[in-house]
Every structure is written in C-alpha cells, then in structure tokens.
C-alpha cells in the first residue's frame, strides 16, 4: 500500500495502524515521489492526501491518478478535490477531519471489493 501525505506524522501513524493488521506500506511525502513508487512497485491501493495549493503538486497529483487508472490501482482520497483539479473518480473519498478508525475501515472495504472482483 502506498501512503501519500505531506505530514510525516500522519504517514507514520497510518503505517503503524496498517502494520498491526499485517499490511505493509510504503510512504511518499509528495505526489511526484509517489508517481515513481506507484509505477515501480504497483501497490494494491494508494491512500492520497490531496490537500495542496501548489500548482506543481496538483500536476503531480494528476500524474499519480493517471498512473493509478492505468495500473487499475484503487485510490482512497483524503480531503477535498474538484473535477477540474483531477479527472479521476477515487474508489473512496474521505473528508477531513477524519478518524483513523474510519480510514482503516474504508481501506479494508476497498481491498475487500478488489478481492471479490478478482475472484
């Protein structure tokens, strides 16, 4: 699983919670870094915090979502986003503020749907 968030603390907490359930994860602080990781490692899911005012970061978000679409990788999107910023329908959208328990349940739901579709 690929966790993309500018906040090191948020990434650390989520990775620790996922590790408790046996899910390994990799981290990226920027969408541009995440694009490379997503292309190389093909994660089973991307958790993406999309709150950024930087035009460079928004462009990288578009590239990341295009990569996810191309590789059929679901995205759980955190925050808010408009169609003008990214032309991609996330698997799940979780508005901020959120609780980590709620996020973990969304992640598990998306992964379960993916497993069921593959069966």
TrEMBL record:
Q: Does the keyword Phosphoprotein apply?
A: yes
User: Is Nucleus a UniProt keyword of this protein?
Assistant: no
**Organism domain of life:** Bacteria
Q: Which UniProt keywords apply?
A: Phosphoprotein
Q: Check the record and name the PROSITE patterns matching this protein.
A: RESPONSE_REGULATORY
Q: Which residues carry this modification: 4-aspartylphosphate?
A: 49
Which GO BP terms apply?
A: phosphorelay signal transduction system
Where is each Response regulatory domain found?
1-111
InterPro entries in UniProt: CheY-like_superfamily, Sig_transdc_resp-reg_receiver
| Name of this protein | Response regulatory domain-containing protein
Q: Which organism is it from?
A: Aeoliella straminimaris
């Amino acid at each position: 699983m690929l966790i993309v968030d500018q906040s090191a603390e948020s990434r650390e907490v989520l990775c620790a919670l996922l590790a408790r359930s046996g899910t390994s994860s990799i981290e990226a602080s920027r969408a541009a870094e995440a694009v490379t990781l997503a292309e190389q490692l093909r994660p089973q899911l991307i958790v993406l915090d999309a709150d950024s005012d930087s035009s460079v970061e928004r462009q990288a978000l578009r590239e990341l979502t295009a990569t996810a679409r191309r590789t059929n990788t679901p995205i759980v999107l955190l925050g808010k986003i408009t169609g003008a910023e990214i032309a991609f329908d996330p698997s799940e959208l979780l508005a901020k503020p959120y609780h980590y328990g709620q996020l973990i349940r969304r992640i598990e739901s998306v992964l379960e749907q993916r497993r069921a579709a593959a069966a």
